[in-house]
């Protein structure tokens, strides 16, 4: 078998990796900012921290145009159906970053009105600790998410529907509520 | 605080008690006379601004004899005087007449008190919840309601990766 030399300007890759490379470098965030984390989110998008360096500067306020939802701030129980609706309106492939202590766990707001972590109700890819997190932390989360997209992304998005991923989400929803003996309805 | 106003209230409203604390007049009125007292203050004493309506739940409070204390804060915009009007209501039917016929701004304030404490404002044109979702059934600022709720905050459908 004869060896074929490739010209210098030709690269051989897999279609999955090409698709992931395209997606990870043009994330369009949907800013779901409900509290002070939203201010840090704005700072991240502004000139000093410059999210454009990572290809994620195009904030769109319509979920139809976005593929990365950044939930920044506490989500009240009246807001949760709105958030779910926005998540469902986004097109696949899509990802979600839970930014800050409140979005991830409810934070200091352990009250009847605040949802104790959005991952109980929608899938989350990256969690950012902090109250609120520094812009550098958000940038790190986006870089980690890019790595994740590159590592496990596929052309037809079949990585989004693994049974293993669904098992972990189910476990999260069955956590007991603090101070309550009964399991959630 | 002008003494004329407090004297007028004491004479006209039966069963009310007037006290003063740090220069502010506080009037406790029987529940039946609250609308009469508000009308008197607004139409004859010049208290034209309803600043706030709020409520206190005195469940398990020391020396308390009544369950809910309803508080009306009024201001006189001509003389900059303020007056605090209080009344007490009890279960099973905590109800007072509405103040929306005197101040239209009372509408949302009374809706908030209804939402948080379940006080019925008789004659209110649109007594719905204002802060909590419509399907919410409890009154969350009552002292017998647990701070973490009764599971309402987790009573939502779960959206997984394959769903949307």
Shape of chain A: elongated
Q: What is the H level of CATH, i.e. the homologous superfamily of chain B?
A: NADH:ubiquinone oxidoreductase Nqo5 subunit
Helix share, percent of chain A = 25-40%
Main sheet characteristics of chain A: 4 strands, parallel
Q: From the 3D coordinates, which CATH architecture of chain A would you assign?
A: 3-Layer(aba) Sandwich
Evaluate the radius of gyration of chain B: 19 Å
CATH topology type of chain A: Rossmann fold
Largest beta sheet: strand ordering of chain A: 1-2-3-4
Count the DSSP helices of chain A.
Answer: 6
Oligomerization status of the protein chains: heterodimer
Q: Tell me, what is the CATH class of chain B?
A: Alpha Beta
Any low-confidence stretches of chain B, pLDDT <50, length ≥5?
Answer: none
Quote the CATH topology of chain B: Beta Polymerase, domain 2
**N- to C-terminal separation of chain B?**
63 Å
Largest sheet of chain B: 5 strands, mixed
* Structural class based on helices, strands and sheet pairing of chain A: alpha/beta
Helix content of chain B: 10-25%
CATH architecture of chain B: 2-Layer Sandwich
